[in-house]
């Protein structure tokens, strides 16, 4: 039987980092972390070093992404499997170079959204993202069809909308929070590197797996690549709807564990998984219904592309409950500060899934890619069940 006294002590010493990610003003940070996590007031604005650190790191990462994508676009496309002289090469290079300009805006937007969610404010990111998306839906067709800019116009519309979203979020945040701390020594890079580094490893493993799948599709030709992108967009758009459940469970579990309310944390985790499973099944049924009335024809009328889409669409539909549970487990891991397990398990999952994608694509072609992607999400779900099922790590109190 676990010593609950030790768990409570651990929870109290973790409060500082709960504030770092979730900024729950009802929590009380330990004395040694007070200067880092307790908000100060300057000119009627709160000074939160964690927020300033996140914004600075986000800006630097965005700048690094811009340089890499802009300077190395040709090499990146070669690695992705687009051969020299291919009909995809020139438009893809123009698109990538222009989209690189938007990299800083994307990273800053994601950072500020994380801060707002930490304050349990999900409305502001929703409104800002909605405004950016509406502008994007207006600009992209205008640039492509009216100004005849083609793929370059699509990239330009995306970049403009991304910067608008970032500016709205920064402006809204600056009204209540001092974005730049009075003293640079207040910036908390140590805590950010310690935990942010684990999340970076995890995100990199995910990105590389997805990139490998796209690369394998590109190597099969223009038509399979187009079909893959259609399937991928539908797959991710539908799956990411479950992220709302993950965010809610993350905030509730974080607050509950910080207070030693283990029954609340347990109930939140299990209920989130049930809701996620049901939600995934609902999305599967909706996609199945839409596919019967010609969902694919919304994206293209090319019969060859549609033939490949029909091969990938069953995987998109069937994996929605699995994807939903995988995303919910992400929220559960983060809420419990289980970053080490989240990073370690994702690296293992990425290695196994990447091997599956690489081998299956060579044996089964386009279908093999989607078998590999499905295995990727299934493994993510399984490692989540393993963590809670074995009552290990921060879930030892379940024993």
Gist?
By secondary structure, this protein is mainly α. It is built from 16 helices and two strands.
Which keywords apply here?
399 residues, mainly alpha, 2 domains, two-stranded antiparallel ribbon, 2 strands, disordered N terminus
Topology (elements, then pairings):
Elements: H1 4-22, H2 34-37, E1 40-42, E2 45-47, H3 49-71, H4 73-79, H5 89-101, H6 103-118, H7 123-146, H8 150-174, H9 189-219, H10 222-239, H11 243-258, H12 262-292, H13 303-318, H14 320-335, H15 339-364, H16 366-389
Antiparallel strand pairs: 1-2
Helix pairs in contact: 1-11, 3-5, 3-6, 5-8, 6-8, 7-8, 9-10, 9-15, 9-16, 10-13, 11-12, 11-14, 12-13, 12-14, 13-16, 14-16, 15-16
What does this 3D model show about the protein?
It is a single chain. The N and C termini lie close together (7 Å). This protein folds into two domains: 39-192, no CATH class; 205-399, no CATH class. It is globular, with a radius of gyration of 22 Å. Helix 5 (89-101) packs parallel to helix 8 and helix 7 (123-146) runs antiparallel to helix 8. The protein has helices at 4-22, 34-37, 49-71, 73-79, 89-101, 103-118, 123-146, 150-174, 189-219, 222-239, 243-258, 262-292, 303-318, 320-335, 339-364, 366-389, and strands at residues 40-42, 45-47. The chain is mainly α and 399 residues long.
């Amino acid at each position: 039987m676990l010593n609950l006294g030790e768990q409570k002590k651990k929870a109290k010493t973790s409060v500082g980092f709960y504030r770092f990610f979730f900024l729950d003003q009802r929590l009380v940070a330990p004395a040694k972390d007070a200067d880092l996590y307790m908000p100060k007031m300057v000119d009627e604005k709160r000074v939160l070093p964690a927020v300033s650190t996140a914004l600075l790191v986000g800006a630097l990462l965005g700048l690094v992404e811009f340089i890499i994508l802009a300077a190395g676009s040709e090499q990146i496309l070669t690695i992705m499997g687009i051969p020299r002289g291919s009909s995809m090469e020139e438009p893809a290079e123009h698109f990538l170079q222009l989209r690189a300009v938007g990299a800083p805006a994307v990273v800053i937007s994601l950072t500020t959204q994380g801060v707002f969610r930490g304050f349990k404010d999900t409305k502001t990111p929703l409104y800002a993202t909605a405004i950016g998306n509406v502008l994007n839906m207006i600009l992209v067709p205008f640039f492509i069809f009216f100004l005849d800019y083609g793929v370059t116009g699509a990239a330009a519309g995306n970049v403009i909308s991304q910067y608008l979203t970032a500016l709205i979020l920064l402006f809204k945040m600056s009204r209540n929070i001092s974005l730049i701390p009075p003293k640079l020594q207040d910036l908390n890079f140590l805590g950010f590197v310690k935990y942010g580094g684990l999340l970076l490893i995890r995100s990199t493993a995910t990105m590389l797996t997805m990139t490998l799948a796209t690369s394998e599709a590109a190597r099969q030709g223009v038509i399979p690549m187009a079909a893959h992108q259609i399937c991928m967009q539908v797959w991710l758009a539908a799956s990411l709807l479950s992220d709302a459940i993950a965010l809610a469970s993350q905030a509730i579990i974080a607050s509950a564990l910080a207070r030693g309310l283990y029954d609340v944390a347990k109930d939140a985790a299990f209920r989130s998984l049930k809701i996620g499973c049901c939600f995934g099944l609902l999305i599967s049924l909706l996609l199945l219904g839409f596919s019967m009335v010609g969902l694919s024809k919304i994206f293209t009328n090319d019969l060859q592309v549609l033939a490949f889409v029909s091969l990938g669409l069953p995987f998109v539909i069937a994996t929605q409950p699995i994807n939903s549970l995988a995303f919910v487990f992400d929220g559960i891991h983060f809420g419990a500060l289980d970053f080490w397990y989240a990073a370690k398990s994702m690296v293992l999952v990425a290695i196994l899934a990447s091997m599956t994608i690489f081998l299956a694509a060579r044996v089964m072609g386009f279908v093999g890619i989607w078998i590999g992607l499905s295995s990727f999400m299934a493994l993510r779900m399984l490692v989540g069940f393993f963590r809670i099922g074995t009552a290990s790590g921060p879930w030892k109190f379940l024993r």
